[in-house]
Design a protein that fits this description.
CATH topology: Collagenase (Catalytic Domain)
Distance between the termini: 42 Å
Largest sheet: 4 strands, mixed
Helix content: 40-55%
Shape: globular
Strand content: 15-25%
CATH architecture: 3-Layer(aba) Sandwich
Radius of gyration: 14 Å
């Protein structure tokens, strides 16, 4: 079985893609990824899940462990978020989305199931920890 965290971002917003690629490099130093999980960066602001729910990010956890999971993150609303929040906070929102889904991946790896309780808080803490490593005096 393949391992690792891979970013597939050719369709995503290029500014978001660069930030997510840097963040993924840091995540690889923080977590092991024993089952390959690609992160697909999508061009729209939202997308439908396989259940028809409209979301901006999702984690697909296959029932069959022989299949690989995947994460999808919509990046199309970056220009609007940059205008509303500023560049850093807009990019942080995408990193939080990636973190949220990586936490679901970790839940799936460790227990075989996923849940929401505490995930948003943990995702924010991950992004804050990353920010502390990238701040310049």
């Amino acid at each position: 079985m393949r391992t690792g965290l891979r970013i597939r971002g050719s369709r995503g917003h290029p500014v978001v893609r660069r930030a997510v690629v840097r963040y993924a490099a840091w995540l690889r130093t923080t977590f092991e990824f024993p089952v390959r999980v690609p992160v697909y960066l999508l061009p729209g602001a939202t997308f439908p899940t396989s259940h028809g729910e409209i979301v901006s990010a999702s984690f697909f956890a296959p029932w069959n462990r022989a299949e690989e999971p995947y994460i999808r993150v919509a990046t199309g609303d970056y220009p609007q978020l940059r205008t509303e929040l500023g560049r850093d906070d807009a990019l942080a929102s995408f990193l939080c989305s990636v973190s949220h889904e990586v936490i679901h991946y970790r839940q799936w790896i460790e227990t075989g199931r996923i849940w929401e309780r505490g995930v948003a808080r943990r995702a924010s803490r991950l992004v804050e920890a990353y920010a502390r490593t990238t701040r310049h005096p």
